[in-house]
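Lab notebook, bench 4. The sequencing result for the construct came back, and we need a structural model before the next group meeting so we can plan mutations. Quick request posted to the team channel:

Model the 3D structure of this chain.
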Amino acid sequence: MIGFGAHVRESLVPAIGRFADVHIARIHDPYLGPSVSAPYGSQIAATVDGVIDPKRVDALVIAATPEVHYDSAAASLKAGIPTFIEKPASVDADAMRALCSLSENTGTYLAVGHNYSFSPALTRVQRFIQSSDFGEILNLNVAFHGSKPRGPRWGMTDEFRAFLLSHATHAFDIALFSTSDVPLEVESASFRSSRNGHAGTVLLSGGSSLSVCVSLTNLAPRFDLGLTAISNAGRRVRMSGLSRVEYDGSDSSDRIGSSWSASVSATDIAGYVEQFSDFFHHVQNQRWTPTVMVRALRGLEIIDQIIHLRS
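Done. Here's the predicted structure in token form:
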């Protein structure tokens, strides 16, 4: 594992710890303080080379900064080590495109940690959308409202790009996942800044009939995530947070519709456990598809389009 910050210790390590046959063998983090102990008897590696070693590890999890993600993932893929990168996978689409090419050329699995697409709620949303009676999505609204982080991040000089990388990557991944990875293009983007944060709306289109609206901010009082999809068959599916999904039909007898409520732990509800289950499954079976990797690339391409529109 490369990177051992608070997010890794609070979310990723507990999720990995749920797998009895997976052991965090080695950790490298140059900023690791003396008060932080390595989990489960892991060894602390003084250098990246001490972790990127196919003789010592079967897979690598990278959860540091975007710049570190690219350099470490490139070295790991060249060494033939299946690699999981926490989002954002890279600073821009060009770097992610290079990692995708490395993965394909070396035949080495590359996954990106967009945990919400593995959450029980979003999995249920997609199940409704893909049902035979839902029809074709006409309109999708995604709201990703965070309360932090704000201001400069990861040492990046472009603070607005850092905001998009920390917040928009999740929102665009959710939109792409919900629409079965239909390529999305930016129609317009409008943002306002205040108190070291941002709030804005991005309008996207997919094909000839799909319209997507994404609302983003890091100025909300607390985290909130919502989704609504409307189909040409008069169906609607709504997700409120990660704990409730409602599905409505077009018939009068369907006015109340059906609903689903989560009854799982906080680690499970956010999709962390399931995303690692998927990653370890592909590593152990040595069979994989580039779906998650390509979706991460498309999300970064959307961010690049937004940056270009603002320039």
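The two ends are 37 Å apart (CA to CA).
Will bring this to the meeting.
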